[in-house]
Structures are given as C-alpha cells and as structure tokens.
C-alpha cells in the first residue's frame, strides 16, 4: 500500500508543511539477499521508485535518519 500511494502521500506531506528536501529511503525486500534501497528527496522519491521498479513489500523511511545509511553500510552483512 505504501508504494502504491507514495506519490500522493509525499505530495500531501509537502502540502501540509514537510520540507520537499526531506530525505527519504525506500527499502524493498528488507533484510533479505534481494534487498534494494533507493534514496531521494520527498519531492522526487516517487519518480525514483517508479524508475527503479521498486515493488512491495517495501518500507518507507522519511527524515534525517536516512542520512545515517552511508555511515552504517560497513556494518550491514547482507
């Protein structure tokens, strides 16, 4: 459901005051060997997800915590 409504939800968040530059990560098939992660800004994440073909199941993370991903990558083992 999150992926299907991502564009609409992002637009509403921006409409009601969330900064369009807010970082967003979408994690497809998290914690599996097939995991894929795309990142972008709230204003562009729906287009990135569509372009990359990200499908459910996926988790959407919104906020500055997304910026920790690069620091944590060395500790991820999958």
What does this structure look like?
A hairpin with a 7-residue loop joins strand 1 and strand 2. The model has no long low-confidence stretch (mean pLDDT 94). It is built from 3 helices and 3 strands; from the N terminus they run H-E-E-H-E-H. With 78 residues, it is α+β, with helices and mostly antiparallel strands. The longest helix is centred in the N-terminal third of the chain and has 10 residues. The chain is globular. A 3-stranded antiparallel sheet has the order 2-1-3, with helices on one face. Helices cover 28% and strands 22% of the residues. It has a single domain, classed as 2-Layer Sandwich (Methyltransferase, Cobalt-precorrin-4 Transmethylase, Domain 2), CATH 3.30.950.10. It starts with 5 loop residues before the first helix and ends in a 6-residue tail after the last helix.
Features:
78 residues; alpha+beta; 22% strand; single chain
What would a concise description of this structure say?
The chain is of the alpha+beta class. The chain is built from 3 helices and 3 strands. It has a 3-stranded antiparallel β-sheet with strand order 2-1-3, with helices on one face.
Number of strands: 3
What CATH architecture do you see?
2-Layer Sandwich
Distance between the termini: 25 Å
Q: What's the helical proportion of residues?
A: 25-40%
SS summary, helix count: 3
Shape: globular
Largest sheet: 3 strands, antiparallel
Name of the level-1 CATH class: Alpha Beta
Look at the helices and sheets and give the structural class. Answer: alpha+beta
CATH fold group? Methyltransferase, Cobalt-precorrin-4 Transmethylase, Domain 2
Count of discrete structural domains: 1
Regarding quaternary structure, what we see is: single chain
Strand numbers in spatial order across the main sheet: 2-1-3
Give the helices and strands as they follow along the chain.
HEEHEH
Amount of beta strand: 15-25%
Radius of gyration: 12 Å
CATH level-four homologous superfamily name = Tetrapyrrole methylase, C-terminal domain
- Identify low-pLDDT runs: none
What is the averaged pLDDT score? 94
